[in-house]
C-alpha cells in the first residue's frame, strides 16, 4: 500500500522544519523592527519639524523687532530736524537701501501729506495718503505693525509705522516702511536658505490663513484656512501632526506662530520620504545577517544528515528483517530527543547573529546618536514608569544660549561639537537613578530622582558654573539657561512638569540667559 511514510524521510523533515523556523523567525523579527522604527521615526520627524518651526518663528520675530527698532531710531533722529526736507529724504533713502528690508519708505506729516518717499522714483512726495489701511496706522500715533492687506497698487503688503515726536512731545508725523510680501525677498533670506532634506519645505500663512510664502510661487495668495494644520495655527497653537496637503500627499508637519506678526510657520516633510529610511535600515540589517543564516543552514543540513544516517540504516534493517514484536519496540523508542537538541543548538547559533543585530538596532534607537544621551522617545517611556510609581523627582529643562548664532557663524559641525561637549558634562553630573535626555535641537532634560527642588537647584547651579568654564567656537563662555520643576509639587503628569520647567526656562532666557529659574508653586 502506498504511504507517505515510505517516501518522507527524517532528514528532509529536519531541513523543512528548520527552513520554516528560519523564515518565520526572520520575518517576525524584521517586521517587529520595522513597525517599531516606523513609529519612532514618525515621532522624531514631527518633533524635529515642530522645533524647527518654532525656531523659524523666532527668526521672523527677531527680524520684525530689529526692523521696528531701526525705524524707532530713525524716527528719534528726525524729531530734532523734521523741517529739514533734505534730512528727511536722506533718512528715507537710507532705510530703503539698508538691508533690502523695506520695499518703500514714506514720511508723512500730521495731515496725511507725503513729505518724502523712497525710492524717489515713486513720485509720491507732495501727495496725500489714499490707503484707508495706511491712514488707520497713522491715526494711532504709536508704533504699529499692520496685518497683511492689498494696497491701492494691488500688492499684498504689511506696513511698519513709527510716530515722530519732538523733544516737547508734540506729534510731528509718521515714518513708515512698506514690505511687499510677494515681491520682497524677505522670506527667502529668512527661511529659504535653511537646509531642508527628504523633500521638506516651509510655507507661511498670515493671520487669516492665506499663504504669503511658499516655495511654489503659484501657491501664493491661496486660502489655506481649512487645512488641518492652519486651523490649529489660527487657534494660536503650536505642535506637530500628520496631515494631508493640498495635493492629497500625507505630510509630517510641525507648526508654530510668530508672536510679532501672528503669521503661521509650517515645516512639512513628506510621510513616505521620512519613513523610507526605516525600510533601508531593516534591509541593511537583513543583508548583514543573511550570510550567517545561509552558513548556519548549510551547517545544520550536514549535521542533520550525519545524525540521521544511522537511523536510515536501522530503518532499512527493520523493514526487511525484524519481527512484528521487535518492530513495536522500535516504534516505541523516542530517538528524536538527541536530534532535536542538536537542531536547537544550531538554531540558537544561527539566530544569535540576527537577533544580536536587531537588539543592536533597538539599542541604537533608544540613544541619541549625536550626544549619546537618551532620546526623547526612550526618556518618555522611562518617565512614564517613574510617574506611575509616584516617585518624587525634579526635572530640569535647559537650552544652550545663543546656539543658533554658533550654527549660523561656524556651521553645524561646530554646533554639534558644542552639543557633545555639553552632553559630556551632563553625564558627569549624574548620580545613581538620574536621567539625561536630548529633548530636541539644543534642548536637554535632566531628571534628579528623589531630589528636593532646593537640592536640584544647587546641582544645576554648580553644573552651570562648570559649563561656563568651557569656551565656545565664538570665543565666549559656553552657557545655558535652565528651568526647574518638581513632581508632584508642580503637577501630577509628565507633560505638566515639562510645561512648568519650560516656562521657567523661558523666564531664564527673558531675564538675561545663563541662569537657572525655579517654577513657583
Descriptive report:
The protein is of the alpha+beta class and 521 residues long. Helix content is 51%, strand content 18%. The protein is built from 13 helices and 16 strands. Strands 1, 2, 3, 4, 5 and 6 form a 6-stranded antiparallel β-sheet that branches. Strands 8-7-11-10-9 form a 5-stranded antiparallel β-sheet, with helices on both faces. A 5-stranded mixed β-sheet has the order 13-14-12-15-16, with helices on both faces. Helix 6 (271-321) runs antiparallel to helix 8 (336-366). The chain starts with 9 loop residues before the first helix and ends with a strand. Mean pLDDT is 79; it is low at 1-5, 320-327 and 332-355.
Mean pLDDT: 79
CATH architecture of the domain at 376-518: 2-Layer Sandwich
The secondary structure category is alpha+beta
Instruction: Let me know the largest β-sheet.
Output: 6 strands, antiparallel
β-strand number: 16
**What would the CATH topology of the domain at 376-518 be?**
Alpha-Beta Plaits
List key phrases describing it.
521 residues; alpha+beta; Alpha-Beta Plaits; disordered N terminus
Explain the layout of strands and helices.
Blueprint: H1 10-78, H2 85-97, E1 104-109, E2 114-118, H3 132-139, E3 144-145, E4 149-150, E5 156-165, E6 171-180, H4 186-192, E7 201-205, E8 211-213, H5 228-234, E9 239-244, E10 250-257, E11 264-270, H6 271-321, H7 324-331, H8 336-366, H9 376-388, E12 393-400, H10 403-410, H11 412-429, E13 435-440, E14 443-449, H12 453-467, E15 480-487, H13 494-510, E16 516-518
Parallel strand pairs: 15-16
Antiparallel strand pairs: 1-2, 1-6, 3-5, 4-5, 5-6, 7-8, 7-11, 9-10, 10-11, 12-14, 12-15, 13-14
Helix pairs in contact: 1-2, 1-6, 1-8, 6-8, 10-11, 11-12
Amino acid at each position: 500500500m502506498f504511504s507517505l511514510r515510505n517516501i518522507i524521510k527524517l532528514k528532509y523533515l529536519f531541513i523543512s522544519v528548520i527552513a520554516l523556523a528560519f523564515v518565520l523567525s526572520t520575518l517576525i523579527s524584521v517586521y517587529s523592527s520595522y513597525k517599531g522604527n516606523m513609529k519612532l521615526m514618525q515621532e522624531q520627524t514631527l518633533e524635529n519639524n515642530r522645533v524647527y518651526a518654532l525656531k523659524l518663528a523666532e527668526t521672523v520675530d527677531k527680524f520684525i523687532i530689529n526692523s521696528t527698532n531701526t525705524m524707532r531710531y530713525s524716527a528719534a533722529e528726525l524729531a530734532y530736524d523734521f523741517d529739514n526736507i533734505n534730512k528727511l529724504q536722506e533718512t528715507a533713502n537710507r532705510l530703503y537701501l539698508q538691508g533690502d528690508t523695506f520695499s518703500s519708505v514714506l514720511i508723512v506729516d500730521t495731515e496725511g501729506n507725503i513729505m518724502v518717499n523712497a525710492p524717489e522714483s515713486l513720485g509720491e512726495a507732495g501727495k496725500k495718503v489714499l490707503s484707508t489701511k495706511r491712514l488707520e496706522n497713522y491715526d494711532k500715533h504709536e508704533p504699529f505693525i499692520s496685518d497683511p492687506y492689498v494696497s491701492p497698487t494691488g500688492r499684498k503688503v504689511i506696513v511698519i509705522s513709527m510716530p515722530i515726536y519732538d523733544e516737547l512731545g508734540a506729534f510731528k508725523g509718521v515714518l513708515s516702511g512698506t514690505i511687499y510680501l510677494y515681491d520682497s525677498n524677505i522670506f527667502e533670506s529668512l527661511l529659504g536658505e535653511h537646509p531642508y532634506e527628504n523633500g521638506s519645505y516651509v510655507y507661511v500663512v498670515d493671520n487669516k490663513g492665506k499663504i504669503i510664502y511658499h516655495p511654489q510661487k503659484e501657491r501664493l495668495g491661496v486660502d489655506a484656512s481649512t487645512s488641518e494644520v492652519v486651523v490649529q495655527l489660527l487657534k494660536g497653537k503650536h505642535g506637530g501632526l500628520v496631515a494631508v496637503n493640498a495635493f492629497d500627499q500625507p505630510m509630517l508637519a510641525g507648526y508654530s506662530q510668530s508672536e510679532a506678526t501672528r503669521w503661521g510657520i509650517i515645516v512639512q516633510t513628506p510621510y513616505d520620504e521620512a519613513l523610507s529610511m526605516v525600510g533601508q535600515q531593516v534591509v541593511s540589517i537583513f543583508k548583514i545577517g543573511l550570510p550567517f543564516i545561509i552558513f548556519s543552514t548549510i551547517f545544520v543540513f550536514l549535521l542533520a544528515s550525519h545524525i540521521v544516517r544511522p537511523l536510515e540504516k536501522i530503518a532499512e534493517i527493520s523493514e526487511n528483517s525484524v519481527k512484528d514484536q521487535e518492530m513495536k519496540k522500535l516504534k516505541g523508542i523516542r530517538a528524536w530527543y538527541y536530534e532535536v537538541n542538536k537542531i536547537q543548538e544550531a538554531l540558537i547559533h544561527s539566530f544569535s547573529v540576527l537577533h544580536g543585530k536587531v537588539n543592536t538596532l533597538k539599542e541604537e534607537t533608544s540613544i541619541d546618536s549625536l550626544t549619546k544621551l537618551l532620546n526623547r522617545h526612550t526618556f518618555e517611556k522611562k518617565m512614564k514608569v517613574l510617574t506611575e510609581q509616584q516617585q518624587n523627582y525634579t526635572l530640569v529643562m535647559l537650552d544652550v544660549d545663543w546656539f543658533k548664532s554658533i550654527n549660523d557663524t561656524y556651521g553645524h559641525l561646530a554646533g554639534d561639537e558644542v552639543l557633545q561637549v555639553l552632553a559630556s558634562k551632563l553625564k558627569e553630573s549624574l548620580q545613581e537613578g538620574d536621567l539625561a535626555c536630548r529633548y530636541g535641537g539644543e534642548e536637554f532634560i535632566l531628571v534628579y530622582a528623589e531630589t528636593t527642588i532646593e537640592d536640584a537647584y544647587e546641582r544645576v547651579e554648580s553644573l552651570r558654573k562648570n559649563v561656563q568654564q568651557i569656551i565656545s567656537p565664538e570665543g565666549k563662555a559656553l552657557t545655558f539657561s535652565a528651568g526647574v520643576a518638581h513632581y508632584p509639587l508642580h503637577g501630577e503628569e509628565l507633560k505638566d512638569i515639562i510645561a512648568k520647567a519650560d516656562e521657567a526656562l523661558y523666564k531664564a532666557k527673558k531675564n538675561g540667559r545663563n541662569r537657572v529659574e525655579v517654577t513657583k508653586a
